């Protein structure tokens, strides 16, 4: 009987044991498979180089800051060398209603940390250090002087931080900084004439004062920690031995702290005030810089947008434009720029504007009537800007925006290379087939 | 341990019991160190945040108001536990020391080595003088009310003067771009922060203009008033969260 029972138990155990083994094997296979996938994934990992330039809604990128002519003075340089980025931008007249007006905007540089430092910045030729109020419809040119700090290969953009709106990226460029990080210097002259090294200024002093107070704090902690702490003190407190837990010496030390620390604090404070009598509060003004005289919509070539259609299957924006040539020479439409994407008309020689890494659709622009518009002539033209860039640059997301209006700049050229720039804007009608 | 031993029958631990109790002390201290370095530092970074991160945020109006108000929270809560149950007047100093350790680690490794900012641009402030005085007031008064009013006020009022020796030199004026800046403002301009445009700084904003250019003392007294309330609130939060029921079972 016992033998039968033993057999039954053994059989039952085996019956349970075998499936468990099978499950373990199955799980092992899955884990091995997942491990292989993970390994393959890890091997093919690439560093991320984007800055979220396509992240902002298309209508914000197309109808706020309209960048053009962005140039870098050089793209390969050494630590301590200066590099200058210059360019122009038009602040769209058709500023989106959902984006706060640019009452405080900050021309910034997208970098992976301060691998460069910004030494100077100009707007319309005027140096400025703070944020600035921009005027919709205004034209501006800018210049930012940077200095190489950390060697490396970096993708850098000029961009605007717009208060309560986000970052509107300008065209980017790859910069190569060579040399030795340890060679970097950044000296600034104070108003008193003292030359200070910004990399180390105040560091030793800060460490000294932190160490000084840390020493006193540690002494106070050790004064108590050297004695039995939690269980022993809890028992004594429960036993009514409170007076033995804080001794007269402890109290005297407490009194010294109570008087001595504030005295020390105010003595050191007074010493510092006397040492830096000309200290001023942090500065926080908003710079006021007026726009340039009109560069876009300067009154020579007038453009009115009659209709805009986006053909989804063709990835093509078709704009019907009423153009009036007020110049004394025939003009041709050579370029349409929107959201840092440039559509070029192959039939018109467009002078190279930029060595920044513009996203260009060479030959992406075509007209139903390519003949030059004669002086004084008014013509309605169907302009087609077609390229997969609408999709890859995530500008076609416009059809999913709450504010599906397009904005951009059109560039006209006369035979002598003179350029006329106009801004256009229109509601976009999607065409799904 | 018996629940309530009387004074007459109380016998201190000796031998093995004493050694185990001491080992328990060290265990709790090490755990507390990591706990407060992590939690207080996180709390501080999420609330005081940029005012403590950047040298060009340490203004005379918001910085001396916000920092002590947030800084007194954990010290009050830990004092409530350590003083009420153990008569240990080191809660504030312990918390602030842990905060300092966490802050320095973050500034050196996260801000300097990871994000390339010079350490002098991200020097933390110190609240250790304030914490020492807060501990001393509690020990000498043995009173929540007195500590909240006088200790809390001292905690706030000492903050700005105790940090001026560290940051005063960053307020030396510099002429740049046809304007006057401080050295601290120059750091903000030169060392590029893509997510931190100048207009985001909340400095010298508001209507604290009644006393002209003496914004710092006014801010400090405002902070002192709020600190007395924050101290009381966080003392009770500390008492609410803490328990000694496990000690009673020993």
Throw out a few tags for this protein.
heterodimer, A: 433 residues, alpha+beta, Jelly Rolls, Helix Hairpins, nine-stranded mixed β-sheet, five-stranded antiparallel β-sheet, 7 helices, elongated, B: 250 residues, mainly alpha, particulate methane monooxygenase, chain B, two-stranded antiparallel sheet, 2 strands
What share of residues are in beta strands of chain B?
under 5%
User: What would the average pLDDT of chain B be, to the nearest integer?
Assistant: 92
Work out the radius of gyration of chain A: 34 Å
Number of helical stretches of at least 4 residues of chain B:
11
Which architecture of the largest domain in chain A per CATH? Sandwich
Low-confidence stretches of chain A: none
What is the element layout, followed by pairings?
The complex is a heterodimer of chains A (433) and B (250).
Chain A: H1 2-43, H2 58-62, E1 65-72, E2 76-78, E3 82-91, E4 105-110, E5 116-123, E6 126-127, E7 131-132, E8 139-148, E9 152-162, E10 166-169, E11 173-178, E12 187-189, E13 195-197, H3 203-225, H4 230-238, H5 242-245, H6 248-275, E14 286-287, E15 301-311, E16 316-325, E17 332-338, E18 341-344, E19 359-361, E20 365-367, E21 378-386, H7 389-392, E22 405-413, E23 419-431
Parallel strand pairs in A: 2-11, 7-14, 15-23, 18-19
Antiparallel strand pairs in A: 1-3, 3-8, 4-9, 5-6, 5-8, 9-10, 9-11, 12-13, 15-16, 16-21, 17-18, 17-22, 20-21, 22-23
Chain B: H1 15-47, H2 50-53, H3 63-71, H4 73-86, H5 91-114, H6 128-141, H7 144-157, H8 159-167, E1 173-176, E2 179-182, H9 183-190, H10 215-241, H11 245-248
Antiparallel strand pairs in B: 1-2
């Amino acid at each position: 009987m016992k033998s039968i029972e033993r057999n039954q138990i053994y059989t039952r155990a085996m019956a349970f044991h075998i499936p468990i083994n099978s499950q373990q094997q199955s799980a092992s296979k899955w884990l091995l498979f997942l491990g292989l996938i993970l390994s393959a994934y890890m091997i093919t990992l690439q560093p991320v180089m984007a800055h979220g330039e396509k992240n902002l809604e298309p209508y914000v990128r197309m109808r706020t800051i309209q960048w053009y002519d962005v140039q870098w003075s050089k793209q390969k340089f050494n630590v301590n060398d200066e590099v200058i980025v210059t360019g122009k931008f038009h602040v769209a007249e058709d500023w989106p209603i959902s984006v706060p007006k640019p009452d405080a905007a900050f021309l910034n540089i997208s970098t992976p940390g301060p691998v460069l430092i910004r030494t100077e910045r100009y707007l319309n030729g005027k140096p400025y250090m703070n944020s600035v109020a921009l005027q919709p419809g205004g034209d501006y040119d800018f210049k930012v002087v940077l200095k190489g700090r950390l060697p490396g290969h970096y993708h850098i953009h000029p961009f605007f931080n717009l208060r309560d709106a986000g970052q509107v990226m300008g065209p980017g460029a790859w910069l190569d900084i060579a040399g030795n990080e340890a060679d970097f210097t950044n000296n600034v002259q104070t108003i008193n004439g003292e030359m200070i090294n910004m990399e180390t200024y105040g560091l030793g002093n800060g460490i000294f004062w932190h160490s000084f107070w840390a020493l006193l704090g540690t002494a106070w902690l050790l004064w108590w920690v050297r004695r039995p702490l939690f269980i022993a003190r809890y028992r004594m407190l429960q036993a009514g031995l409170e007076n033995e837990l804080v001794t007269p010496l402890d109290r005297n030390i407490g009194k010294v702290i109570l008087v001595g620390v504030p005295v020390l604090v105010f003595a050191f404070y007074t010493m510092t005030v006397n040492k830096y009598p000309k200290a001023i509060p942090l500065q926080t003004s908003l710079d006021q810089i007026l726009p340039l005289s009109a560069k876009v919509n300067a009154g020579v070539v007038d453009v009115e947008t009659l209709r805009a259609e986006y053909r989804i299957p063709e990835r093509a924006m078709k704009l019907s434009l009423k153009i009036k040539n007020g110049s004394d020479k025939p003009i041709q439409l050579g370029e349409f720029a929107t959201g840092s994407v440039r559509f070029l008309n192959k039939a018109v020689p467009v002078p190279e504007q930029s060595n920044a890494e513009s996203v260009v659709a060479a030959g992406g622009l075509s007209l139903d009537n390519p003949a030059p518009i004669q002086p004084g002539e008014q013509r309605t033209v169907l302009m087609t800007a077609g390229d997969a860039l609408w999709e890859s640059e995530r500008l076609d997301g416009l059809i999913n925006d709450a504010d599906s209006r397009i904005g951009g700049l059109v560039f006209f050229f006369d035979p002598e290379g003179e350029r006329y720039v106009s801004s256009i804007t229109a509601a976009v009608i999607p065409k799904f087939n | 341990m018996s629940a309530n031993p009387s004074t007459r029958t109380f016998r201190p631990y000796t031998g093995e019991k004493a050694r185990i109790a001491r080992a328990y002390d060290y265990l709790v201290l090490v755990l507390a160190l990591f706990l407060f370095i992590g939690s207080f530092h996180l709390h501080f970074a999420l609330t005081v945040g940029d005012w403590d991160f950047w040298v060009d945020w340490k203004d005379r109006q918001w910085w001396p108001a916000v920092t002590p108000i947030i800084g007194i929270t954990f010290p009050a809560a830990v004092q409530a536990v350590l003083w009420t149950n153990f008569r240990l007047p080191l809660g504030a100093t312990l918390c602030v020391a842990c905060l300092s350790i966490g802050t320095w680690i973050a500034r050196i490794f996260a801000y300097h080595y990871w994000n390339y900012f010079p350490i002098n641009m991200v020097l933390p402030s110190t609240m250790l003088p304030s914490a020492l005085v807060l501990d001393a007031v509690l020990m000498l008064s043995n009173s929540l009310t007195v500590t909240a009013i006088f200790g809390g006020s001292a905690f706030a009022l000492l903050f700005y003067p105790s940090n001026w020796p560290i940051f005063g030199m960053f307020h030396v004026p510099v002429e740049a771009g046809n304007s006057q800046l401080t050295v601290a403002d120059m750091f903000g301009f030169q060392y590029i922060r893509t997510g931190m445009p100048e207009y985001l700084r909340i400095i010298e904003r508001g209507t604290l203009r009644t006393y002209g250019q003496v914004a710092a003392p006014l801010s400090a007294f405002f902070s002192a008033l709020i600190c007395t309330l924050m101290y009381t609130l966080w003392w009770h939060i500390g008492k609410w969260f803490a328990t000694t029921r496990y000690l009673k079972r020993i």
